[in-house]
Amino acid sequence: MLKQPIFIVGHPRSGTSLVRSLIERSEHVWSIGREGKPIWERDSLHPGRRGWHSNALDASDATPEVAARLNADLLAAARKPGAEWSVADKLDFLDFLSAQGLRPHYYDVPLKALQERFPGDLPEGPPTTRDGGELDEITPFCFPSRGERPTEAELASGIRLVEKSIQSCFRIPFLRALYPDAKFVFVVRDPRTSIGSLMDAWLNPRMFFSYQVPVPLRIQGYSDVFPWGKEWWNLSLPPGWQDWVDLRLAEVCARNWLTHNRAVLDAARELAPTGDSVLVRYEDVQADPVSTMEAVAEAVDLPFSDAWGRRDLPVVMTQTTPDPDKWLRHASEIRPVLPLVRELAEEAGYVGL
């Protein structure tokens, strides 16, 4: 069974993968090692089965049948966090997958290393099922955990699972109904770097495709740039997304930041009196991972690990080295949309935008 699962919640490109990787250094946790979309959105929980409204779920969606299925799937996927994959390990594994006919260029490996191992033209466009439909998992595809499965005895006494999915911002009532003893780690990030990173994700020709939506997209700077830009939505599907389909890409990304973080800050405020949550800023994780993780460990009831006394940070879900100034590549597009997010940014501690 699951006990006190730890849900890491934040908007796409906010640093949730980094925080998850740091928590996974604890010997007391288990992980599914990747985004949970294939588990959470099976069958009736997929937005396509819910009128394409959004990723939002509430407590009424946590039926006994749904709870039993999700619990079984999460336990089946649980592994001990294994040693982090090196680039060489990843490439060797992709050699094996490539021999089976899969395209390695959709996996999270530095592009230069991929091109050196797999020369030739790079594929472009969303990876799809055989009939051209949406895959369960969002690219960049992750590498499976190499850790051990829990034993029957460990399952019987209960395991602590760390889970991170970008759609969780809109599912806090649902998750709390499923797991009343859950702990939450909320992550926020400067809107300028977030919007820039979101734009990079939308403009990536191989990654971050999530939903083949039935609503025509006319997003300037995306739909008029790529042939798939008229039907493929990227990353999570927030409430209100259908009102954004005629906007410029920078404004779509700004409204993404605003909608996700409004949900995050509201949930963090609601849960603060319970002691079941902690709110962290990505920039604090980068600047002082030791102190930040000490606060996280206390909030989620984990012993502070020696592994968190290290200042080194894993690099996750990125094709290039993290750089707080990367957003400046899109500065002329981002600066005009900052007034949309300024009030909430100040609430989150980001002033002077």
**Beta fraction of the residues?**
5-15%
Characterize the main sheet: 5 strands, parallel
User: CATH fold name, please?
Assistant: Rossmann fold
Q: Which structural class is indicated by helix and strand composition?
A: alpha/beta
Poorly predicted runs = none
Protein name: Sulfotransferase
InterPro entries: P-loop_NTPase, TPST-like
Pfam family, one: Sulfotransfer_3
GO molecular function: protein-tyrosine sulfotransferase activity
Keywords:
Rossmann fold, 13 helices, 8% strand, 353 residues, 35% helix, alpha/beta
Structure description:
35% of the residues lie in helices and 8% in strands. With 353 residues, the protein is of the alpha/beta class. The chain has one domain (6-84, 140-347): Rossmann fold. The strands form 2 sheets. The chain has a 5-stranded parallel β-sheet, sandwiched between helices. The chain has a two-stranded antiparallel ribbon with strand order 5-6. Helix 8 (191-202) packs across helix 9 and helix 9 runs parallel beside helix 13 (338-347). The longest helix has 23 residues, at 249-271.
